[in-house]
Amino acid sequence: MRAKILIFLFAFLMIFSSVSFAVELNSKDLQWEPKWYKPQVLSSVELAKSILTNLMASQKFSTWLGYIPTKIDADKYGLRVFGVYGDQQETSVINLTEVRDAFIYYLPNLDRDFKWCVVVVLSHQDPSFQYFRTQDLETAQKLSDVISTFALAAGSKLYTPTGIDYFVDEKKMDKLKKDTCWSENYGAFVESVESTSPADTAGFKPNDIITEVNGEKVKDNMGFVGLIQNGVEGKESAQFNVKVYRNKTFLNLSMTVPNFNYGKEKLVSDTNQQKPQILSKASLGIDVKSISYSTDTGETYNGLKVLNIKPNSLAEESGIKVGDIILEINDKAVRDIPSMANVISNEIPVKFKVLRNGEILALDAAQSF
Fold first, then answer.
1. pLDDT at position 369, please?
2. Rounded to whole angstroms, what are the CA distances from 91 to 82, 95, 321?
3. For the chain, what is the radius of gyration of the CA atoms?
4. What's the pLDDT band for 178 if we cut at 50, 70, 90?
5. Is 286-364 CATH 3.30.870.10?
6. What is the residue-wise DSSP string for 194-219?
7. Taking the CB of residue 290, how many other CB atoms lie within 10 A of it?
8. Cα–Cα distance list, 206 to 35, 52, 103, 118, 184 (Å)
9. Nearest-5° Cα angle at 332, 319 to 16
């Protein structure tokens, strides 16, 4: 799982990273050591905001390129971190409704003070990531707590990891089968186990082949993942009896896995009872294209035609529909994607002017958290 994340990470950095940082941050020799951590679901969104504000004031975390945060906005649509490095600026945006996890890594050979990294993984529907570096493990854990709490309050469902990384290379799996005389066509193949994780505590080892969970046959890697995710659903934690094939013999292991989503219901309920407050929106949740539209009366409008709207996004909750042409946000014309990005990156979206079926409509932006 994490190996795939790192592949995406390196691909992204090779394209977009600053040249001056390329040697240290993009080096193929950069070491990534995963640190298993169960994020704490904080008691409220307000507490999460307070902790994040204190982290920003401490200057103990930065964006990947080293930009120190100077301003942070958060609501159920997104987390936006404004950072500066010298005379340069950078804005990191996380769509909280798509957050799947916030993994922690240690980068021992990185030539920087901030050697810890929080990698925020987004869902399969939005296959991307965001990452922050921190000065120490405690800061990384607090940042993971905050991001996870925000994500749960926004309605996201987090992935509950066991600490197992799986073989995905068919040749390596075939070799493992041959070496261990495993002739069956099922099982999950363990490549590595993270220290202090549930799997490590239970006694899993690299090259184990997981064959059963609670008496149910494990079809493949994803089959095992699915059994774990379903097993912890609605519980604070769940205990699993796991049969593994190791060194040509079967072993029974007992593994207890904490649910990363536990506490979400209370958090969401308490959040919904709070007085709504409009904050900066990191994303409208729409796909658009520039368009020039002429009406039957000869009037011409330039704006952004809405091609797709994500469920539960700011756009959907504000009443924007597919086919609408967005003309203005906060009374500012948006004729292309850069102009729209400029508005929502620097202002709180309060109102929209859209053209729908030849009629001009004024829509109020949905409220947050």
1. 57
2. 5, 13, 28
3. 23
4. very high
5. no
6. -TTSHHHHHT--TT-EEEEETTEEP-
7. 16
8. 17, 37, 20, 25, 19
9. 90
Q: Please, which residues bridge with residue 359 across strands?
A: 356
DSSP assignment string, 65-116:
T-PEEEEEEEETTEEEEEEEETTEEEEEEE-GGGEEEEEEEE-TT-SSS--E
| Distance in angstroms (rounded) separating the CA atoms of residues 341 and 290 | 13
- Collect all residues with Cβ–Cβ distance below 8 Å to 306 and sequence separation of at least 6: 286, 287, 288, 315, 320, 321, 322, 323, 324, 325, 326
DSSP annotation of 125 reads T
The residue written with tokens 């959040």 in the block is 271
Q: Indicate the class that CATH gives domain 164-258.
A: mainly beta
Give the phi and the psi of residue 262 in degrees, each rounded to 5. -65, 130
Domain boundary assignment for the chain: 2-153, 164-258, 286-364
CA dihedral 40, 265, 279, 368 (to 10 degrees): 170
The answer to whether residues 149 and 174 touch, using CB atoms and an 8 Å cutoff, is no
d(CA 50, CA 146): 9
pLDDT band at residue 272 using 50, 70 and 90 as cut-offs:
low
CA distance linking residue 108 with residue 132, whole number of Å: 16
Summarize pLDDT for 69-114 with one digit per residue, the tens: 998 888 766 888 888 888 888 888 888 888 999 999 999 999 888 9
Which residue, 103, 98, 61, 100, is CA-closest to 83? Answer: 61
Q: Which two tokens stand for residue 361?
A: 């409509």
DSSP 63: E
**What tokens appear for 356 in the block?**
């729908």
The alpha carbon dihedral of 319, 321, 325, 326 has a sign of positive
Note the pLDDT tens digit of each residue in 122-147: 876 555 788 999 999 999 999 999 99
CATH 2.30.29 describes domain 2-153: yes
- Helix, strand, coil fractions of the chain, as percent rounded to 5: 30, 35, 35
Specify the amino acid at residue 303: G
Q: Is 2-153's fold the same as 164-258's?
A: no
Q: What are phi and psi of 191, to 5 degrees?
A: -90, -45
pTM tops 0.90? no
- What's the full length of the chain, in residues? 369
Is 159 a residue whose pLDDT tops 90?
A: yes
